[in-house]
């Protein structure tokens, strides 16, 4: 039986790239320090007033154009994001409105960096139950709002003013997290393949809330009264906290295991897989996962150097680049894998 497959893709990154050297203007860091720990060289950030739905809209337009379909062909929107414009409502409906398709159901999912494995399984279910024929799956995140520096102009002006010592020290306190993230979006148009043996094969996904605080934002939740306050901002609780060593250990143990579980379930050999499309969180994580699975480097493409971690956006952005460069093509067997806050993790097998 044919399964769900990708018939169009698009991606979008806002504004000019911000290099590691530019970050060194607002915090104590260096290009070498960032590259050694993450593989990241530059990233993009939204402008003030620009949000996740703007990113997702641009990526979706390009994906629909690639699929040669009008927006009216979309039956369902799935958006993976952890940075919506508002606490509520979600941003998926805003993307639908911008596409000119009011009334089309839109679902925001909150699996953070692991949004795509979960999203693919949901999309497959929607199509197989007849709830939708064409699903627009989007991953988009705008992390600029939790960055710890004040004067954004300094990033884009080499000869501009220097930050205050207080602002510089605050940004430096949070550099381990803030140097990792960038803003961007990717979108995939998905339909059931017309060819037997192609499309979605299966997913293996998991959640373990016991490790939720390994990476999370402590402030702004509804256990507080009010949920937002001046004290929260003063205590810098709007900036993510990350237990780097613990999160790294989780990723390099859980991801190889879930890939092996999935392959065993569907009688697929690791050597049969043409491309492993991994979430772009950190090059050190992906290298460790690659070594654990004993797969060649050329089968695990990376674009983190140019984008940083765009959370839900990393996999669809990478898929778009791989499709447009002909690095992946019809008939290829792909394995998607990701781990994100929650903690959520999983893998998907799909033959294009």
Outline the structure in words.
The structure is a single chain. This protein is an alpha/beta fold and 352 residues long. It has two domains: 4-192, Thiolase/Chalcone synthase (Peroxisomal Thiolase, Chain A, domain 1); 199-351, Thiolase/Chalcone synthase (Peroxisomal Thiolase, Chain A, domain 1, 3-Layer(aba) Sandwich). It has helices at residues 20-23, 31-38, 52-67, 92-99, 115-128, 153-156, 165-173, 175-178, 230-234, 244-265, 283-293, 304-307, 314-324, and strands spanning 4-12, 18-19, 42-43, 76-80, 106-109, 135-141, 184-192, 199-207, 215-216, 241-242, 275-278, 333-340, 344-351. A five-stranded mixed sheet has the order 1-7-6-4-5, with helices on both faces. Helix 3 packs across helix 4 (92-99). The mean pLDDT is 96.
Beta-strand residue percentage:
15-25%
What is the quaternary state of this protein? single chain
- State the domain count: 2
Architecture per CATH nomenclature, i.e. the level-2 architecture of the largest domain: 3-Layer(aba) Sandwich
Number of helices: 13
Number of strands: 13
CATH topology of the largest domain: Peroxisomal Thiolase, Chain A, domain 1
SSE pattern, N- to C-terminal: EEHHEHEHEHEHHHEEEHEHEHHHEE
Span between termini: 14 Å
CATH secondary-structure class of the largest domain:
Alpha Beta
Pick out its properties.
four-stranded mixed beta sheet; Peroxisomal Thiolase, Chain A, domain 1; alpha/beta; five-stranded mixed beta sheet; 352 residues
Strand-helix topology:
Elements: E1 4-12, E2 18-19, H1 20-23, H2 31-38, E3 42-43, H3 52-67, E4 76-80, H4 92-99, E5 106-109, H5 115-128, E6 135-141, H6 153-156, H7 165-173, H8 175-178, E7 184-192, E8 199-207, E9 215-216, H9 230-234, E10 241-242, H10 244-265, E11 275-278, H11 283-293, H12 304-307, H13 314-324, E12 333-340, E13 344-351
Parallel strand pairs: 4-5, 4-6, 11-12
Antiparallel strand pairs: 1-7, 2-3, 6-7, 8-13, 9-10, 12-13
Helix pairs in contact: 3-4, 10-11
């Amino acid at each position: 039986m044919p399964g769900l497959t990708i018939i169009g893709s698009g991606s979008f990154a806002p504004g000019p790239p911000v290099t590691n050297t530019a970050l060194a203007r607002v915090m104590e860091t260096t290009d070498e320090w960032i590259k050694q720990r993450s593989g990241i060289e530059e990233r993009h950030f939204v402008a003030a007033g620009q949000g996740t739905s703007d990113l997702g809209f641009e990526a979706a337009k390009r994906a629909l154009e690639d699929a040669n379909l009008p927006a009216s062909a979309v039956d369902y929107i799935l958006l993976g994001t952890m940075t919506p414009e508002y606490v509520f409502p979600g941003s998926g409906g805003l993307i639908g409105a911008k596409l000119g398709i009011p009334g089309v159901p839109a679902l925001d999912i909150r699996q953070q960096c692991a949004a795509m494995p979960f999203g693919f399984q949901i999309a497959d279910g929607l199509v197989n139950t007849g709830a939708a024929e064409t699903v627009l799956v989007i991953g988009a995140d705008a992390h600029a709002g939790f960055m710890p520096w004040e004067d954004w102009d300094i990033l884009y002006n080499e000869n501009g003013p220097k930050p205050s010592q207080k602002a510089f020290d605050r940004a430096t306190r949070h550099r381990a997290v803030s140097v990792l993230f960038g803003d961007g979006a990717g979108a995939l148009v998905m339909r059931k393949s017309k060819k037997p043996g192609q499309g979605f094969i299966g997913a293996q996904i998991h959640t373990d809330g016991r490790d939720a605080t390994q990476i999370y934002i402590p402030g702004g939740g509804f256990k507080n009264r009010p949920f937002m306050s001046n004290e929260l901002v003063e205590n810098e609780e709007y900036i993510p906290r990350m237990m780097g060593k613990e999160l790294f250990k989780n990723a390099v143990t859980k991801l190889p295991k879930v890939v092996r579980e999935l392959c065993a379930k569907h009688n697929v050999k690791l050597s049969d897989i043409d491309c492993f499309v991994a979430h772009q969180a950190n090059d050190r994580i992906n290298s460790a996962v690659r070594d654990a699975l004993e797969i060649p480097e050329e089968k695990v493409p990376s674009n983190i150097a140019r984008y940083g971690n765009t959370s839900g956006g990393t996999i669809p952005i990478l898929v778009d680049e791989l499709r447009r460069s002909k690095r992946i093509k019809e008939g290829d067997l792909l394995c998607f894998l990701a781990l994100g806050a929650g903690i959520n993790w999983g893998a998907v097998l799909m033959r294009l």
